[in-house]
Amino acid sequence: MNAAQSNKMSQSNQSNQSNQPRQVGGAEPVLRLQNVTKRIGRKTIVDKLSFDVHTGEIVGLLGPNGAGKTTAIRMMTGLIGISEGDVQIAGRSIQKHFKEAIVHVGGIIENPEFYPYMSGYDNLKQAARMTDSVTEQRIMEVITLLGLQEALHKKVKAYSLGMRQRLGIAQALLDRPKLLILDEPTNGLDPAGIREMRDYLKKIAQAEGMAILVSSHLLSEVEQMCTRVVVIQNGRFVTEQHIGEQGRVGALPELQIRVDKLETARQVLEALETVQVTEVRESKSELICQTEDREVPALIDALRHADVAVYRISETKKTLEDEFLQWTGGNQIA
Amino acid sequence: MRNMTRLIQNEWLKLTKKRSFWIPPLMLAVIGAGVTFMLYKFSTNVAEMDSVTVYLAGMLNASGLGQFVAILSIIGTAGMIAQEYAQGTIKFLLIRSRSRGQIFVSKYIVAVFYTLMMTLIAGAALYVSGGIAFGFGGTAAEWLNVLQQGAYGFVYALVYVTLTFMVGALTRSTGVAIGIGLASTMFSGIVIFREFYKYVLFPNADLSVYGTMGPPIPGMTVGFSLIVLAAYMALFIAAGYTVFRRRDVA
């Protein structure tokens, strides 16, 4: 290697280092959004959005209608320009190295659209011809994975929405992407279809070992399959939440206790140091209190000693849905 | 290179897998045969032709079946870009590891193929029907003339197909593209006798006039027209290409 070459190489290494964001937790994120902004005219549709997605994660991008989810996804896939900031896929900028970045992405943006006059197979072949390495064998593999064998040679116009959705995922998976992006994949599906989709997405995430980003305006549809949700509203990042995390930060389990003597019960519980009474519901003769699991037996003993009859103890699980509505301020149309 | 041929293959299949694909070529063949029959039956000076080559040379250019080649090619290719938007398949197309430039070029190449195919079909229909009517055969010089007139017909159609292709890329509407494409073919016959008009696309599109009626405006030559046409086509392609590459796909 001559001096000029090695000089060039070290330069490119340096520029690589300075271009790439600091790596957190060792692994490079599959998808990284850095202050991504989209302005159309004077309107800012997505405003300085930043988050990462790592391999093996299924991340939900949540927000009410009009929050900017689809716009954000279109920027990630290069369908629309980015006004400010950058999107990197496997370390490659979608703006500067479109082909190298997008090669790692499989996606369905909005509805899965195909050439209706062609068969499902012909549509997959169309997709395969736009890749460098997809073989006939891989096409058949994906077809089997999604159970499309029987509909394969039917024209796509005869497909149900659920079938089109599956074909959409099949085409997205063809080139073994590192990142699967699905925009509102449950739109228009019936509950059975939604469940089916959820199941095969989980299956695929395991089988193919990739990151999945799913956008939705309905948390309940994705919370069961996501490991993490990113919530946005009015184009801005609102919050990020891991799902299935034991003991969310700062939150004690909340109990709802129905008793006969409400006032006595309140006094008894307030006397206990480990219990915080947060609410008294006279109409239902119920107390709401917070305490740790290990304190619950003592709580019950105390009530019994005070001769309070306990009819029911249940945990008031604040669902993610409630929190989601809280984060996004209900269902207001922004 | 392999990437490009496979993109072209994709585009060609998108056209040919449609059931309606066969309508324009069939129409062209029927029109070709029909026109030959009518001329043979009712036109005295054509019926006296002694060979198919003379007939072919007279019919392949824009004043003959070339006009139909242009119209049907416009209709056949106008939707190549607009349909992708209408079907929503544009997203499917653009989130692949292929540049928008490559996709645009592959589509244009297929539009050129289609126009060439239509020209050949017109030639074949006229040759078979004309051969039956006037007898097959012809001298080498006559065949050369046939090739020249065929090329003129092809260029004429291609100019308008390119214009239509650009309009399709700019407006994303098949209807508007066909409308503007067809309307513009009608301007070819109109000549405004002013100096500037020879730099306009329309009087230059039909190269066959130089052999029959002479230059539309004094001072024009085949070479001049070819340069003007090349400039316009380059402009159309550049405009379509630029817009297609930059546009936000919503």
UniProtKB/TrEMBL annotation, chain A:
Q: Where is the composition biased (Low complexity)?
A: 1-20
GO MF terms listed in the record are: ATP binding
Q: Where are the transmembrane segments?
A: none
User: What does the similarity note say?
Assistant: Belongs to the ABC transporter superfamily.
Region annotation (Disordered) maps to 1-29
SMART domains found in the cross-reference section: AAA
Put simply, this protein is called ABC transporter ATP-binding protein
What keywords tag this UniProt record?
Answer: ATP-binding, Nucleotide-binding, Transport
PROSITE patterns attached to this UniProt entry: ABC_TRANSPORTER_1 (PS00211), ABC_TRANSPORTER_2 (PS50893)
Q: Name one Pfam family in it.
A: ABC_tran
Q: Which residues form the ABC transporter domain?
A: 31-259
Automatic annotation (TrEMBL), chain B:
Pfam annotation, one family:
ABC2_membrane_4
Q: Where are the transmembrane segments?
A: 21-40, 60-82, 103-130, 150-170, 177-197, 217-244
Alphabetized, the UniProt keywords read: Membrane, Transmembrane, Transmembrane helix
PANTHER family, per the entry = INTEGRAL MEMBRANE PROTEIN-RELATED, MEMBRANE PROTEIN
Annotated protein name in UniProt: ABC transporter permease
